[in-house]
Design brief:
The complex is a heterodimer of chains A (294) and B (213). Chain A contains 7 helices and 13 strands. By secondary structure, chain A is of the alpha/beta class. Chain A has 3 domains: 139 residues, P-loop containing nucleotide triphosphate hydrolases (Rossmann fold), CATH 3.40.50; 60 residues; 67 residues, Alpha-Beta Plaits, CATH 3.30.70. Chain A is globular and about 60 Å long. Chain B is mostly helical and 213 residues long. Chain B has one domain. Chain B contains 9 helices and 2 strands, in the order ααβαααβαααα. Chain B has a two-stranded parallel ribbon with strand order 1-2. Classes of the chains: A alpha/beta (294), B mainly alpha (213).
Amino acid sequence: MPAQGSSGRLAGVNKRFGRGGPWILRDIDLVLLPGSRTVIVGDNGSGKSTLLRVAAGLTRPTSGTVIRATEVSYGPERLAGRSNFTAWEYLGHMGRIRGLDRATLEARRRHLVERLGLLPDPYTPIDSLSRGNKQKVVIAQAFLAPVGLIVLDEPYSGLDTKASRTLDDLAESERAGGTAILMSSHADPMGPGSGQVCRIVDGRLTQMPSAGGAPEYRRIELTGTERSCAADQILSTAGLRRAHLDQRRGVLTLVVDVPDADALLLEAIANGWSVTGVAPLPAGGNENSGESRI
Amino acid sequence: MARYVWCDTLRGHGWIGPALCFLVIEAIICTQTGSVVPTYAASAAALLFISTWVTIATVNNEDPVQLSITVVTVGNVSEVRLAKLGVALLMGATLSVVGIVGPLLTTSFDATGADVIAGAVAQLLTVLTGVAFGALLSRPVVLKKAWAVLLGFGVCLATVVIPYGPPTRQLLVLFDQPGEFALSPGLLFVAFETIGITIVAVYVSLRLARWRG
């Protein structure tokens, strides 16, 4: 089911393999907003990969609802098995399947292999590449074409520092274009750009405070008419820092604490608003300045 | 998508075993003389096994991790599976060309146009049945290679030896009857039956593949 107003949403998702198997995921609720970055952290075997596979549409949940963007790209933890292509050929095939025209595909794959520093060269069979370079191929195919949601399973594992930084840059660039990033990690991510961090324990997801204790905000832009869309409930949502209504354009701009952004988004959609933009607002910014409350 | 699957399958070399096996069978059965009809019948029966093998090899060719990328990129597991089955059908059809033309080129069989048409139809029908069986015996429906081989051999053998077993046994019975049957109602019936079996088998395999994720 395609997502409306968000790049993906998991509601009440439960997953277990087989009828008598243990529950891998329990009551997972997760909203992936356009331009957001969500990191799932947890121990080995905690269900991170299963959650990502469910979000990417590869694994059906035992119960619950999964709604995702029409175009999704997925990067598994690593290409462990046999591949019959060179990195260059493989990216070419994936790009063509994505519908990229020849010129765009050539430019995009060259840009990605150069930025990620694929060694010894992109014309080497994938089977002959080192683990880190195979990981770069996985990442390159995930960023080949613009999509609504990018799902990456342990993308930093095996990457050198330079490639890790490049991955961060690529993710930021896609986020700026409105793509939601969902990734998993063994370690808690550091820094203000980490986005929403959720820990998975015993199959349950809990949201972590943002890195360094500094608050992060989300700027949300909604469109609708006062006649058809109620604003009262939205304006009473916890975590709302600022609201501004442009009556002429029918645009309601909100700044909200990151942990409360999902609830506000759901409330807005339920009240008939259309979400036209969601963007991260850096910590320590202007969350309380400028515009007035309604 | 089809281009990717075709390139991946060709480079995967999984098709070489069944293709060589079929060529060996052809070399053996093409030593007969007389009417070409019994040779075509034997080729059709062999193609059932070979086509099942080729289909399993084609669908299982891609590494599961790489397959997960392909499925998300395409956006639909059924589309990926159908592309693989299409490639398997194309490979089986290519082998059936060898099965039809081979006997005419290598030995001095007596062959009429009707014999060639009947042979081609019969071989394409068994190729189609092999694709249907292969769809049900490949990942993620049957995960273990040993089970796939065992079940594939058993099912193919059953359709050859069980009386009225569709479609192979029925085709062999038709070939055994005197006279031309290129456009006979019997062959038409087997054709419809085979297409029906294939549609049901492919549909079930697509549902199971989606269900098993």
